[in-house]
Every structure is written in structure tokens, then in C-alpha cells.
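Example 5.3 — ATP-binding cassette domain-containing protein
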Amino acid sequence: MGVILNIDHLTKDFYLHEQKKQIKSCSNISFQLQKGGFIGIVGTSGAGKSTVLRCIYRTYLATGGSVIYDSLAYGPLDLVTADERRIIHLRKAEIGYVSQFLSMLPRTTARQHVIDAALEAGFSQEEAARKAEEMLRYFRLSEELWELYPATFSGGEKLRLNLAHAMVKAPRLLLLDEPTASLDPDTKLLVRDLLLRLKEEGTSMLGIFHDLEFMDGLCDQVYNLSKGHFADKGGMS
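Solution (predicted C-alpha cells):
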């Protein structure tokens, strides 16, 4: 299958200008994600887990190291040094990101938010609308909510909309930052089933989780991040 993501000595520091203080968030993180594989990252709050994902997605610019992504569009590409034009294209067409927090254009309805994601992935208008509605139904977002602005949604509804937005693309690489944080048990099962389906279809995934039971049977490897470093790794059945 080969490697889709090769991370070598990834480091991210933050500099607090007012305090003139440098904070190390993660340091010398190295691992490989196989195509079609699923790696889970666990660790205490503040350990640097989300920083690793944001450096891969390039919402944070790494201080050091490399993140080599084997893209369809450009071949092997270092996401640390790639220009913004290529990063934007990869986010639209190849790399998905699910956050605990909903981020979207104002005055965009829930339905349109998911349609836009499908259009970015290259689907026609008709197909994008169909896939969006399928995904909204899958995550049990009531049709009464589809034409509303999600600012009034509950935390769980916003997270389900985030999941629909990211997963409608069936991206090659999917980054998951606590995708089950505010979900009820039934919705967690929906997420798990869809992740298993995406994995079977070849999507490669990297996820942060606190729910170890959710990860069991889903992740191929689990890394424990402690104080910005990988403490150990292991497999999961």
C-alpha cells in the first residue's frame, strides 16, 4: 500500500511576545501513516495532540521537521514548506479535518455547508446536493435544521454537522480532533461505523481520542503523547 504521511522530527514552539517567553508544544514527533491505515493519539489535555494535527493541516506552521504527504495532485509534498495555493487545494480535494468546533462562513445554512464541501471535492451540483442530504440524514440532523444557520445549534448538532461536512468528501486523509467529544452513545456508533466504512474504502486517518473504548478495533496503532513527546506506541485489536 505504501506510506501516505511521513512525519519526521515535527516540532512546534509558540512565542508569547508580551511575556517574551517561548513554549514548546510538541517536539521531535516522528511516525508514518500507511495508506488506508488509522493511527490514534491519546494523552492528557495540553500534551500537544491538537498541535500535531494542526501542523499537518497547516493551520499551525511547524517550527521544525517535515510532514511529507503523498498527494494525488502533486506527489510527495512537504506540508511544512508548501505554498498556500497547494495547501488550499489539498484541503478542498484531499485532506479533511474534523474539529470539536464548528467553523463556517456566516449566513450559510447547514445544508449548504455540506453541499459546498461536496462541490469542493469535485462532485456536480446535483450529486453534491444528494450526497449532502444523505450525510445529514445519516448523522440524524433533522430536516427542520437544514435551512437554518447553525449558530443556534447545540454542541452535539454542530459536531455532527462538522462530521457531515468532512466525511461527505470521503477524503484521502482524514484528521479527527476529538470527533466524539459531545456526542451521545448512539451518534458515537454512527461515527464509528462510518469511519470503519471509510477505512475499508481506503481513507487514511489520524485521530485524537479520549474514549479508549471507541478506539478499540478501529485504530491500527495508538501513540501516547506526553509533554509534547511520544511516550510509547502500541497496536490495537
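Remark. The first strand starts at residue 3 and ends at 16.
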